[in-house]
Fold these 2 entries.
Entry 1:
Amino acid sequence: MIYFVAFIILIGIVLLWAVAQYNRLVTFRNQVQNGWKQIDVQLKRRHDLIPNLVNTVKGYMGFEQETLEKVIKARNAAASASGIQDSAEKENVLSGALTRLFALAENYPTLKSNENVRQLQEELSSTENKISFARQFYNDIATKFNISQQTFPGNLIAVLFRFQPAELFEIRETAEREVPNVDLSLRK
Amino acid sequence: MGPLPKNIYEQQAANRRNTALVVCAFILFFAFLGFGFDAFLLGFPPRTTDHDFGVPFPVATLVALAYAGFTTARSLRSGDSAVLRSACAEPIPESDPAYRQLFNIADEMSIASGIVRPKLYLITDPDPNAFATGRDPAHASIAVTQGLVRKLSREELQGVIAHEMSHIRNNDVRLMTVVAALIGAVMLLVEFGLRTMQFGGGRKKSSSGGRSGGGAGLVLFVLWLFAMVVAPLVSQLLALAVSRQREYLADASGAELTRNPGALASALEKIDAADEPTRSIKKGTGNLCIADPLGRRANEREGFLADLLATHPPVGKRITALRAMAYQGA
């Protein structure tokens, strides 16, 4: 009788643990999905800000037409990208184009002192930060999700209910190479 | 701090472990005082042969605990508004273009940490400083001084906001409130204990001392008496130790948010260089500031005693730890 009761209690404890573990994994999975959506929110914000910026600086940087066009082109390509891989690549091209634009803007003192431009630049660099922090948060939470799927005894539940490990966000090499191409020669 | 420089994650793990150790020590110390009070002065547990003396419950311990719980609940409920009021902190309107950058930075840190952006407050004070308050992440506020916004660069400001967000995320407001309530409970025990012994405690003392079994009981009683005498000092020191661990922890978890420990280090250098006291931040709220608002030089001296008596670790040590994290590759 005693053994029977002990056995029932043991089963109960194991079941409770399994439920808690399962719920933990589901919570993580939702946080990971939400983290991914947050990246999209910030990317959308960047797409919305860029036309505004380009219009404002156009008057000052007339002869940097090429750079401005590159930014607009990269922005349109990124906004219409489909699929995770495609969008990641195009966003990185856009980041490169923006970095180049900001670097060139350093050569125009009147541009830098314009209050409007300064505010826009603050908004854009903040958005750049937000994108990278959103990616960082996504990677952090995805790593936690993956660790709890892979460590014992959580992996038992993960295997039983077929949880899939989350993919980490990585910067592709090709896009990364574009950034150091910035031409910093002073033009008078 | 250990002999080897720690990276962001090792530093946080070490601080969490140290906090747990100090808090456990505090709870054991409190339990010793409380049960000693019950055993030596109130005769708990009652002896079957002595019906007119002895209480059926550890009354003093329970009363002190209830008192601590009550104080915690009360200060958690209204604590943040009281603290903000005492510092004359004004809410910053989100539309104010002058503080657009501050809001952007707070948004960035909210994204990085995954908690909602706390309400932002401004203190009209030229000395750079900042503090966090609020019982949980949903009811949290961060107050910064004008001097902080003026003197720090964008990255440094981000480091400071990340430090304060980490205080919120690590539930430090709650922890420090509970610790403060425990100090209150200890003071209550000491106050009543000393008074009971003064007025006719002698009879009870001898009867309970005798019944506890001679020598061992007497040694325990003397130990307890000694603990009661040093309790006010010891509980303050334990609370300060907790506070210092939480500062190191907030530095490290702030660095985890920004992945830029160097910026917080240089912010601390600037804040330290402006060593005027932050007059508008009162003494009691000093716990969750970025730097000790008294601006006292005790933070500079790295002597054992100076370390022991400060709410914040010495700025030099914090900067060294942050630079080590930067070196380890954040």
Note: The first helix of chain A runs from residue 2 to 58.
Entry 2:
Amino acid sequence: MRADYVIKRTAFAIITIFVSITLNFFLFRVIPGDAVSNLARVPHATPQLRQALEKEFGLDKPKWEQYVIYLKELAHGNLGVSFANQEPVWSNLKTALANTLPMVTLGTVFAIVIGLIAGVFSAWRRGTKLEQVSTNVAIAFYAFPTQWLALVLLIYLSAFLPSHGMTNDFLLNPTPWEHFKDVLLHMVLPSLTLALTLYGQYTLVVRSAMLETLGEDYVLTARAKGLPQRTIVVRHALRNAMLPTTTLIALSLGYIVAGAILIETVFSWPGIGSAVYQAVTQRDYPMLQGAFLVLTVSVIFANFVADLLYFKLDPRITE
Amino acid sequence: MGVRPDIVGEGAGLEAPPPRRRRGGWFFQILRESRQAKVGLAVLLFFIVVALLAPWIAPYSVHEQTGAVYCPPSSEHLLGCDDGGIDMLSLLIVGGRTSLVVGFAATFVAMIIGGGIGIIAGYRGGWLDGLLMRITDYFLVIPDLPLAIIVAAVWGPSLPHLIFVIALLLWTSTARIIRSQVKSVRELVYVKRARSLGARNTRIVFRHVLPQIGPLLIANTVLTVAIAIFDETALSFLGLGDPSAVTWGSIIQFAFLRSAISAGAWWAIIPAGLCVALVIMGCYWLGQAIEDALNPRLKVAHLSPRSFRLRPLPGRGKDAE
């Protein structure tokens, strides 16, 4: 049974990644007025130049052949060359990813912790005034557009915290410790924004999962046994509520990615989100394609891990 | 203390069957019982009415300069002006119209795609069901915004494209909900009886299946509108909306691009985001109230702050006090 489940999930992950690669290829090449053929449409280009460009980029070959070449290059880790800075896309993305990960991780962990606490509190104290305030605050943060929240924090907190980029360029020859402190300070606003936008969603998810479990018979039994409320909430209700919560947090990964794109744009954080934004504004299609692939593959992988984790958490799954 | 009647009544589901109501009656019942639903509906109706009346109630034109650049709020310009000296309040009113149209249109398209796929998958079953659900799973897993970005970037920015791109992201939850409901309703005795009487598939779906899943569908629709409007602001912010259209998303985008922050013009940013947030909250309150009402398990709480007894959901009437 166990092996069955793992194989099934692995197969789904692999197929999903493959479909994304294919989609990525065809979206950019098959749609009329497609992006790559625009390359050869240099203004005032002579037909010769156009032909030379088409040949150079392999656009004169049939689509399926281009597709096979694309797959081959991808297998060798080649995502193409950025139009904007002529660097390989993968090396651009690597630096960007390394910048994004700490910021996103900090924000997400923070959001999960506050979300869990606020969600459990909201379900436990349902019906009280304080709970209504807490829940409605969570709904508000769920509803605030991410980029807007970032801008609002920028208006009110940029006097106290660095609001732009990842490092202070005027810090000359910083020691590693100074550099670390500098980056950490710059990380506060983007991470805080991400944490706030996610916190609302997580609170609501945990709350509704907890409300479901609090209505279960085993909670009634525990209560009848005279167990203290704290024990019931933490040991009985929360543990069971963790199951749907894990799934929903895994599914919110796409939301985290979206948040990262918008937040990095506002705070000029040199991560993968900024890379996407710049690629959009500069019409840098190879970068855009590469970023989409990297983001998709990481989200699919994280979902795969969450699936396995879910299996570990819930022994009832036998499919 | 004895057995509390409300525990037996609600917890064990022994309540007498409710009297037959006309179709749609459930909606008014939820409205009566839930303050959350009332507030949500009121907020939504307010914004819809403002959007409908936009050309008549907007104080100024959104195409002409009527004040100084980034002039602060005053009695003439209640919410100040933007970087072109255009009245912010008028921009908000007119922009709300487009934002709501995009939100509702995208939801409508998403409902058609999701509803169609859900009904076919749930009703037909078999390999077709498997295939359609794998496709749905796929869309559920891949990150929304990057997909929307590449599709919008390749297609080029325009309102219809924006609507379709957002719909492309949102149909999955509808498809899943409808599929599972259709699957369970299909097995009900009266549906089987209708089929044995010779009712065709379309008739069964429209007469027997859809009315059953109506409330859930409406809750889902309302929550989808919220996400659609949220996505509109995100895509517009990244420059993938219609560059000539005024929407709440484009107001935030322009304020960001044209350095409203360094000009200290909070009025160019904050109201637009608050409008978006209010609409989304309205949708959430209404949608959640309907979903809660459909899930009787939520009415039972074996743990509550002061004493061990049933408590009503917030704003859900006084009968359980």
Note: Chain B has a mean pLDDT of 79.
